[in-house]
Structures are given as C-alpha cells and as structure tokens.
Specification:
CATH superfamily: Phosphoribosyl-AMP cyclohydrolase
Function: Catalyzes the hydrolysis of the adenine ring of phosphoribosyl-AMP.
Family: Belongs to the PRA-CH family.
Number of strands: 8
Cofactor: Mg(2+); Zn(2+)
Radius of gyration: 16 Å
Structural class: mainly beta
Pfam families: PRA-CH
Largest sheet: 4 strands, mixed
Order of helices and strands: HEEHEEEEEE
CATH architecture: Roll
GO molecular function, one term: phosphoribosyl-ATP diphosphatase activity
Number of domains: 1
CATH class: Alpha Beta
CATH topology: Ubiquitin-like (UB roll)
Oligomer: single chain
Number of helices: 2
Length: about 120
C-alpha cells in the first residue's frame, strides 16, 4: 500500500480516508434541515462503500462486528445528502434526511440528554 503524505491527505483533493487501527472512521450524522447532530457511529471500508453506492447510511456495528444499514429493522433510514470530510480525513460528517427517529431509544437524536452538574436531564423536543 502506498504511503500518503500528510500534505496530500490534508490539502489535496483526493478522498483518502484514514481508518484507525481497527479499520474504522468516525461518522457523524447531522440533520439536513435542523443541523442537529443525530448520532455518532463508525464506518469501515465496506460501510463507506455501501453508503456511497446506495445513498443510505451504513455503519460498522462494533457490538455485532458486521455491516449495519441504519433503519434495516426499524425503517428509520438516514438518506445521505452530502458527505464532508475533516482535515485529516479520519472523521466524516453525513448530512442526512432522517426517516424517523435516529436513536434506537426512539428519540429523534441520540443526544437527547444534557449534563446538569452530575445529572443527566432529558431535553424536551
């Protein structure tokens, strides 16, 4: 595998995702309409390729150790409108149109609580 220079990765125009030692990159799903962060997950090469191919957010499930299509059981798909890449290409921002709640708890976002001192307080949506 050819080594990519820091300048090429950070300043060039080639998409050169930098997967960690486990073969993953962070993926942050952001609501296209509200700009709220809906969820944070991980993608491996397979999930990234499937997302680019289908326009539906796919992730790598660390707990199951396999490809996961968001919405495959709930029907709450995330339709990717745009993908942004951070400066060193080790994190992705997916601008999405959610088809239902993003969180497995049924909340619109996985970020449905705020920290108040040492207590979690549910945010009313």
């Amino acid at each position: 595998m050819t080594e990519v220079s820091k300048a090429e990765r950070e300043l060039g125009s080639a998409f050169l995702p930098r997967f960690d030692a486990a073969g993953l990159v962070i993926a942050i799903a952001v609501d296209a309409a509200t700009k709220d962060i809906l969820m944070v997950a991980f993608m491996d090469r397979e999930a990234l390729d499937k997302t680019l191919e289908t326009g539906l957010a796919h992730f790598h499930s660390r707990s199951r150790g396999k490809l996961w299509l968001k919405g495959e059981t709930s029907g709450h798909f995330l339709r990717v409108q745009e993908m942004r890449v951070d400066c060193d290409q080790d994190a992705l921002q997916l601008t999405v149109i959610p088809e239902g709640p993003a969180c497995h708890t049924g909340a619109r976002s996985c970020f449905y609580r705020r920290l108040d001192g040492d207590t979690l307080v549910r945010i009313e949506e």
